[in-house]
Write a structure and sequence with these properties.
The chain is built from 14 helices and 17 strands. With about 375 residues, it is of the alpha/beta class. It has a seven-stranded mixed β-sheet. Strands 1, 6, 7, 8 and 9 form a five-stranded antiparallel β-sheet that branches. A three-stranded antiparallel β-sheet has the order 13-12-14, with no helix packed on it.
Length: about 375
């Protein structure tokens, strides 16, 4: 006797059973379990920090946001740009609060000139951010780039995202002999999710493989980021002049051919544990895939962006004033604000630390 399905499993079952081959792409699966009304990002509960499923750099210490605040400020001044920031995928609003609090305290004149646009598709995130940012009246809220453009028109300033693109739905393909097949998601007779290989039916996938110049060895998997390609087009349409700043984990093409990555990079994070099987805990687990840095750069160039910077997050922070925030103090209390700040700075600067897992990519449109 089958157990009663959860709401998410019922949604997946309907999509799978109504499809032509009784299976759906990984892109459809991710879109459903992450962004559906019953999906992970729409759930009204903590996702980031100790009570959630993962940490981000801004959840470690506000100094991460302080360094970016100074960089954004200097760039806008140097290039005679309006001091306008657009955070894409703003989550709970932690980064925005840290940046705004810092500017309000340290650079009040620039704070008065700043307009901050918070963009996130999640209703839960929006509500949490509105509470966190209640004291800042220079923040406007949008659900998408289309929503932003409809109300604000073209943008001039800096578009910023931190760990956004890794959660975009991706197709998964695998090289089997001389053939490339798509890895799809289906259900067995016991309503358990499982993978199945199918011939590629979406010509955009093979077009992307040819365009990306990524040659898969036999037995290798890779994620195909069609939605990221569309996103770059949308960003280019919205941003008239300024920067696109992307902070995320990713690989260059040659790195994706490392034997350690032969099974691809799609993974889950559930209660601070890395889950190898992305089909576990549907709707209750975050899913991520390392972004294709070469594809992001190449697509950006086609859309009018010029690569300005690509480096490890650790290097970027060090090059742009991380150590300027160190403070001298004589207190021995390890829980003092000064001790926490200096410890955080050391963790961001430490070789092999979490900051080396992320890249900072800066693309300029002028």
């Amino acid at each position: 006797m089958k157990q009663q399905q959860s709401p998410m499993m019922a949604i997946l079952s309907e999509k799978i059973n109504s499809s032509t081959n009784k299976c759906i792409s990984y892109a459809t699966y991710m879109e459903t379990v992450l962004y559906d009304a019953q999906g992970y990002y729409q759930r009204d509960q903590k996702k980031i920090g100790r009570e959630g499923d993962f940490y981000t750099s801004s959840s470690v210490h506000p100094v991460f946001a302080w360094v970016f605040a100074d960089y954004f400020d200097a760039y806008c001044k140097d290039h005679q740009l309006p001091f306008a920031l657009y955070e894409l995928g703003g989550g709970s609003g932690s980064f925005a609060k840290q940046l705004l609090d810092y500017l309000k305290h340290m650079k009040p004149h620039r704070y008065e000139e700043l307009t901050y646009h918070f963009i996130d598709v999640s209703v839960g995130h929006q509500n949490e951010a509105i509470k966190q940012l209640a004291e800042h009246d220079n923040v406007t809220y949008f659900t998408s780039l289309d929503d932003l453009q409809q109300h604000e028109g073209k943008a001039e300033g800096i578009l910023f995202s931190n760990e956004l693109l890794d959660a975009f739905p991706v197709h998964v393909i695998e090289k089997k002999g001389r053939e490339i097949v798509e890895v799809m998601v289906t259900m067995d007779q016991s309503d358990r999710l499982q993978e199945i290989h199918q011939p590629i039916s979406d010509p955009r996938i093979l077009d992307w493989m040819s365009w990306s110049e990524l040659e898969l060895p036999d037995g290798f998997r890779v994620e195909v980021p069609l939605q990221m390609m569309e996103w770059v087009e949308n960003v280019a349409d919205v941003l008239a002049r300024g920067l696109l700043v992307t902070v995320d984990y990713g690989y260059r093409n040659e790195e994706l051919l490392d034997p350690a990555l032969r099974q691809g990079t799609l993974r889950g994070y559930y209660q601070h544990q890395l889950i190898e099987d992305p089909l576990l805990h549907p709707g209750e687990m975050d899913l991520t895939a390392h972004i294709h840095l070469d594809a992001l750069i190449k697509k950006g160039e086609e859309e009018g962006f010029k690569e300005k910077y690509l480096g490890k997050q650790r290097t970027f922070l060090l090059e742009h004033g991380l150590f300027d925030h160190l403070v001298e103090h004589e207190g021995r209390d390890p829980f003092s604000a000064e001790s926490k700040l200096n410890r955080a700075i050391r963790s961001f600067a430490m070789p092999g630390g979490m900051s080396e897992a992320y890249h900072v990519l800066i693309q300029e449109k002028s």
